[in-house]
Amino acid sequence: MGYFSSFCVINTIAKPNQMRFSILFISCLLILAGCTNSHPVKQEVSKPKALHIALLPLSKADTNTINFLQQELHSYFKCQVDILPPQPIPPVYLNKEKGERYSADSLLHFISRYKTDSITNVLGITGKDIFTTMREQDGTVKQPAHKYVVWGIFGYGAQPGVSCVLSTYRLRHADTAIYLHRIKSVAIHELGHNMGLPHCNTLHCIMEAGKEKVSTIDEGAADFCNDCKKKLE
Ligand SMILES: [Zn+2]
Ligand SMILES: [Zn+2]
């Protein structure tokens, strides 16, 4: 899945009573092997209801970025967008093989705990670098493994699901307009995955795979193409 490398990927969320064990298990895997499951993460989604997004500021989340996203997502999706109290990222999600990167797979589990009956999707935002393991369709690690086992990404979202995460770490730019376009694009892209959208082959559609480059975002429109919009209806 494309924006992995840049945008996102997915894995499977256990039932709530299995979640603590799963997180522990995943954390152990991280410590032992520095890897995660990059198969599409699927989470249980309850029956469709009015969209209600919550933003969860995680470690080193920038307040201006959070406020910008609240406004932009509210006007784009025409729904309520709340800002939740900030939370630190659990230190056990940290991998130090390539500097400091936090497991996006573990973060999806963590963030999903902040969903409530009224909130449909929770988007975590962090200034820390995040990673996943890039895999081929058959589940094997993409080669060369030293490059793809701890692969830094911009964002990650369950497809479908209730949680997604955005890291501003690789999206920074001296030009604020470019930075904000990137932030908004990744946020809508990951929420699109939560709503069940796969990557899209339409050039410049916001669901286009990241192709491991931030330029894909810079050149794209911060909007779903008509085909993707139809799928959301
Ligand atoms: Zn994606
Ligand atoms: Zn599309």
Q: What is the arithmetic mean of pLDDT?
A: 86
For the biggest sheet, the summary is: 5 strands, mixed
Inertia-based shape:
globular
CATH topology: Collagenase (Catalytic Domain)
CATH level 1 class label: Alpha Beta
At CATH level 2, the architecture is 3-Layer(aba) Sandwich
Tell me the number of strands.
Answer: 9
- SSE pattern: HHEHEEEHEEHEEEHHH
Radius of gyration: 16 Å
According to CATH, the homologous superfamily is Collagenase (Catalytic Domain)
The N- to C-terminal Cα distance equals 23 Å
Structural class: alpha/beta
The parts where pLDDT drops under 50 for at least 5 residues are 1-6, 9-39
Number of domains: 1
Ions, cofactors, ligands: which are bound?
Answer: zinc ion
Tally of alpha and pi helices: 8
- Tell me roughly what share of residues is in helical segments: 25-40%
- Across the major sheet, the strand order is 2-1-5-9-8
Percent of residues in beta strands: 15-25%
Give a nutshell description of this structure.
It is built from 8 helices and 9 strands. With 233 residues, it is α/β, with parallel strands linked by helices. It has a single domain, classed as Collagenase (Catalytic Domain) (3-Layer(aba) Sandwich).
Please characterize this protein's 3D structure.
This protein is of the alpha/beta class. The protein has one domain: Collagenase (Catalytic Domain) (3-Layer(aba) Sandwich). It has eight helices and nine strands. The strands form two sheets. It has a five-stranded mixed beta sheet, sandwiched between helices. The protein has a four-stranded mixed beta sheet with strand order 3-4-6-7. A hairpin with a 5-residue loop joins strand 8 and strand 9. The longest helix has 19 residues.
